[in-house]
Amino acid sequence: MKQRVVTALIGLIIFLVPLYMGGPLFVTLVTVMAIVAFIELLRMKRLATSPLLGFVGLGMSLLLLYAGPRMDIVSNEATLLAVTVGVWLLLLVTVLSNNRYHFDTVAFILFSGAYVGLGLHFFLAARLDSGFAFVLFVLIAIWATDTGAYLFGRKFGKRPLWPKISPKKTVEGAAGGFLLALVAGLIFAWFWPPFDQLWLTTIALIIISVAGQCGDLVESALKRYYNVKDSGRMLPGHGGVLDRFDSVIFVFPIIYVVMALLT
User: Fold this and answer.
1) How many CB atoms lie within 10 A of CB 233?
2) How far apart are the C-alpha atoms of 57 and 218, rounded to whole Å?
3) Tens digits of per-residue pLDDT, 91-123?
4) Which of 50, 131, 144, 175 could form a disulfide with 180 if both were Cys (CB 3.0 to 4.6 A apart)?
């Protein structure tokens, strides 16, 4: 427990300072997160010893991370062209390796690149486009969901939420996480409202909490399928980057699209 607390405090400082500063410092932090998360996925499937596949997949993931006008780094056209070239290169590897690496390997690398690259792209875009207060609002809702699910699950948890994927998660814990996210998010919104209307803030909190728990279950399913306890060991006591930011990767694309449709 002590190790978890120390890691959490140090990690929070390292994370919040670039988040607050924004600009190149935050872009650098998210880039490092993307690289580590992608490598963790390769290790889950035991592809970390395949440098060519990893290099191409990581390059495509970073292109998706930087793509679009908000990044002002890579245009959408250049991204589409580069990703297309990357797909063809990966498909050629299946031939050149005499099917040592086959189609499902290529699919895994492509999907891993999209999962990490697109998820963190919207996280990065939200900070650069919507500002520190909005991103902090979303993060507080995510963290409140995790905390509430843990506390309510330990105290009141009886009915398993999804036993074949994550045996320790309970319906009561999920409900507690949802309620704490609403309370924490509305308190935050009282001082720094992310939207002009309260109903938009409430809808956003509902979406964040539900999507965050879905992201956590997706990561649990992934780890269970590949029979690993943690995605990595970068954060002592907490696992890897994917273990800590699975909800962030899942939430930001969803909240970005939904809020764009509603506002």
Assistant:
1) 12
2) 21
3) 787 777 777 777 788 888 888 888 999 899 999
4) 144
Q: Distance between CA atoms of 167 and 258, rounded to whole angstroms?
A: 31
> Does pTM top 0.90 for this prediction?
no
Distances (CA, A) of 138 to 57, 188, 262: 29, 10, 17
Picking from 97, 119, 141, the residue at the C-terminal end of a domain is 119
Minimal CA–CA distance to 231: which of 37, 96, 47, 68?
37
CA torsion sign for 230, 231, 236, 237 is negative
Q: Which among 107, 4, 124 has a CA at the least distance from the CA of 62?
A: 124
Last residue of a domain, one of 98, 119, 140: 119
Asked if residue 238 and residue 136 are part of one domain, the reply reads yes
CB atoms within 10 A of CB 105: 19
- What is the residue range of 136's domain? 131-263
Please tell me whether residue 70 adopts helix, strand or coil conformation: coil
Residue 230: Cβ-neighbour burial (10 angstroms; 0-12, 13-18, 19+) = middle
Domain co-membership, 64 together with 19: yes
